[in-house]
């Protein structure tokens, strides 16, 4: 903010006596005030106040037609959000007169006959206050306009996402109940919504640094995109009768591929991913394709539940001869659930947190659980002191 100079202030003198106007204007000019305006009629003075937007008003109390109290009331009503200093000019020294002027909105007083140094001293101080007041009001208006514009844009994006979410819900029903032709249409529609959500997510992430609210839009868009991809998966799988081919799968390679698929999302959310499979077997027996999809869904849920600068960890836990658990631990709020497995139920269940906030899980865990069962495995979900751990049981060689 640049330094204010009283010489740039606009000073308005309202007095019915031309001699007083000439005297005051001459004093101000002599001491550097460049912009001086005057009116010898109170109504003309009010009109000039609206037109020139002064930083300081020198106002006579006793004027015909409308006294200084009336002028004060009107100029305060003109700009209620800007407190422009008004110095009252009066020959009265009675306390009652001054109190009445203060009640009407006066900032200071000058007693007639005027003392030149007093006039200039008060004018300098009050003009700086007036310039500061107008500058603050202008900045507040600019910020209000910017907030309104950004809010309108956010509301537009949220409405687009809500429309997409409603349409996707309809596609889910179609995928469950319709013929193979309708499933094909659902798959194609889901791809379109995924592309739309991806575009919105890129836009919102690009604006997140300037406006933090865009992060919320990004999160909604990402969930829409994942749901669309999952609908496409269900529709395509239904047409293929969910064929499962149990085979020897390189565990580390499969997990690393799944981690790579969600690495972009994790980076955008500033969530770190770590993998420790040193204790894991070289291979497990499962369906390579569906296992990769299931791990991706679990990782996506873990990333979604982990705050910025948090971590998602992938590890191996032995459970006995010939089997073990691939575990994914998130860094979200602690899970408090009597039956954590209910997290894998689509849409209807919630992840309850100690602060009484909750977040829907969507279809990701539901599909991961269904695929695990289809592959002869299981998905377990348990709460920890730092979030949740998701375990997929696997048979080793």
UniProtKB/TrEMBL annotation:
Organism: Skermanella cutis
Protein name listed in UniProt: Response regulator
Domain of life per record: Bacteria
Residue ranges occupied by any Response regulatory domain in the UniProt entry: 10-127
SMART domains xref list: REC (SM00448)
Entry-annotated residues carrying 4-aspartylphosphate: 60
Keyword presence, Transcription: no
Keywords, ordered alphabetically: Phosphoprotein
Histidine kinase domain sequence ranges: 221-397
Keyword Phosphoprotein attached: yes
Family matches, as Pfam families: HATPase_c (PF02518), Response_reg (PF00072)
């Amino acid at each position: 903010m640049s330094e204010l100079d009283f010489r740039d202030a606009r000073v308005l003198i309202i007095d019915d006596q031309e001699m007083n106007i000439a005297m005051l204007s001459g004093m101000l000019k002599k001491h550097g005030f460049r912009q001086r305006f005057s009116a010898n009629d109170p109504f003309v003075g009010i009109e000039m106040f609206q037109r020139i937007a002064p930083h300081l008003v020198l106002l006579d109390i006793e004027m015909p037609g409308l006294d200084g109290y009336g002028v004060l009331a009107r100029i305060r009503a003109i700009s209620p959000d800007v407190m422009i200093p008004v110095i009252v000019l009066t020959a009265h020294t009675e306390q009652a007169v001054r109190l009445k002027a203060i009640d009407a909105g006066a900032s200071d007083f000058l007693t007639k006959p005027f003392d030149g140094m007093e006039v200039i001293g008060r004018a300098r101080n009050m003009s700086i206050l007036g310039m500061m007041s107008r500058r603050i009001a202008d900045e507040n208006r600019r910020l209000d306009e910017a907030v309104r514009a950004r809010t309108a844009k956010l509301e537009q994006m949220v409405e687009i996402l809500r429309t997409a979410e409603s349409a996707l819900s309809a596609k889910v029903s179609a995928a469950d109940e319709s013929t193979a032709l309708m499933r094909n249409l659902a798959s194609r529609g889901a791809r379109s919504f995924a592309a739309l959500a991806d575009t919105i997510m890129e836009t919102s992430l690009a604006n997140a640094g300037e406006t933090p609210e865009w992060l919320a839009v990004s999160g909604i868009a990402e969930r829409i995109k994942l749901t669309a991809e999952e609908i496409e998966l269900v529709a395509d799988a239904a047409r293929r009768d969910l064929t499962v081919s149990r085979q020897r799968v390189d565990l580390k390679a499969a997990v690393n591929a799944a981690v790579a698929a969600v690495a972009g999302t994790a980076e955008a959310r500033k969530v770190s991913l770590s993998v420790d499979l040193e204790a894991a077997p070289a291979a497990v027996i499962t369906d390579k394709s569906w296992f990769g999809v299931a791990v991706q869904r679990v990782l996506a849920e873990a990333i979604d539940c982990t705050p910025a600068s948090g971590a998602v960890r992938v590890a191996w836990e032995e459970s006995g001869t010939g089997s073990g658990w691939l575990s994914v631990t998130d860094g979200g709020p602690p899970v408090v659930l009597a039956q954590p497995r209910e997290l894998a139920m689509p849409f209807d269940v919630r992840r309850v947190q100690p602060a009484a906030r909750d977040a829907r899980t969507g279809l990701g865990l539901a599909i991961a659980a269904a695929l695990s069962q289809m592959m002869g495995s299981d998905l377990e979900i348990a709460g920890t002191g730092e979030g949740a751990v998701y375990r997929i049981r696997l048979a080793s060689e």
